[in-house]
């Protein structure tokens, strides 16, 4: 999902659109106090129900759209702000500031974080009255902040099963990474080389990074298995060991979009049946949740106890 063409929210109330400012201000204050509406950004409001349905990425994208509406033409939105609009997700909270880049721009203030640097025409895409950094440039900018952050962004941009197709290619990403000459150039190049098109979620990308760090072999991503009445994709597959691995997120049991009309209990039973069928085709099926990513030795123990070989010893924590 991306929000290049339209914002996440179709309807918002903007203070500058008021026809009766005083009366509407009093009504808005009452609704804010009662929790009926929320403030999206300065002078922009929407219903609490509509806001609550949005993902954290979509909320940040909406704030970027609102900032764009207030800024003079020609701004370049970058970093996390470009990522949100492009649909490149992340782990953890989204920033409260909006990222813009360019030469000769002022310092950061309020809700705007300005990055003073040269921006070429190859770095950006037209976006209404403004510009947004391209998917590859956005990944490079985020990779400069750290390897894990960069890999998550790279995997998201390369994701082959994204509705509408991947945002960029590995060759384009490698070209942008090779042209980067900042202090984090080595990290940026490592990210470009490590990025893969098969990771379906940010937690799968985080798992990939940790699997490599713990010394396990590189897995095949999204391996297809034929089941009795359908088929299934496993997040990770080590064919030489006939070992499958999966990050077991809670969303499949709680998210209405993933439940597709089923109850959580029905989804849990369906997942159990799927796992039982998979186990009849593999030697081992390892599953883990978020705590095992936050404490590496937990994932290490799961995979080693399920007989996946590693070239490294057990981590201390």
Low-confidence stretches: none
Distance between the termini: 36 Å
Pattern of helices and strands: EHEEHHEHEEEEHHHHHEEEHHHEHH
What is the total tally of β strands? 12
Shape: globular
Number of helices: 14
What order do the strands of the largest sheet run in, or round the barrel if closed?
6-5-4-8-7
Which structural class do you get from the secondary structure elements?
alpha/beta
Sheet with the most strands, sense and barrel status:
5 strands, mixed
Helix content: 40-55%
Average the pLDDT over all residues and give the rounded result. Answer: 89
Radius of gyration: 22 Å
How large is the share of residues in beta strands?
15-25%
What would your notes on this structure say?
The chain is α/β, with parallel strands linked by helices. It has 14 helices and 12 strands. The chain has helices at 21-34, 48-53, 56-70, 79-86, 135-143, 147-158, 170-179, 185-194, 202-213, 251-254, 256-259, 264-279, 290-294, 296-305; strands at 13-14, 37-41, 44-47, 76-77, 98-102, 112-116, 124-127, 130-133, 220-226, 231-238, 243-247, 284-288. The strands form 3 sheets. A 5-stranded mixed β-sheet has the order 6-5-4-8-7. Strands 9-10-11-12 form a 4-stranded mixed β-sheet, with helices on both faces. 32% of the residues are buried.
Brief summary:
This protein has helices at 21-34, 48-53, 56-70, 79-86, 135-143, 147-158, 170-179, 185-194, 202-213, 251-254, 256-259, 264-279, 290-294, 296-305; strands at residues 13-14, 37-41, 44-47, 76-77, 98-102, 112-116, 124-127, 130-133, 220-226, 231-238, 243-247, 284-288. With 317 residues, it is α/β, with parallel strands linked by helices.
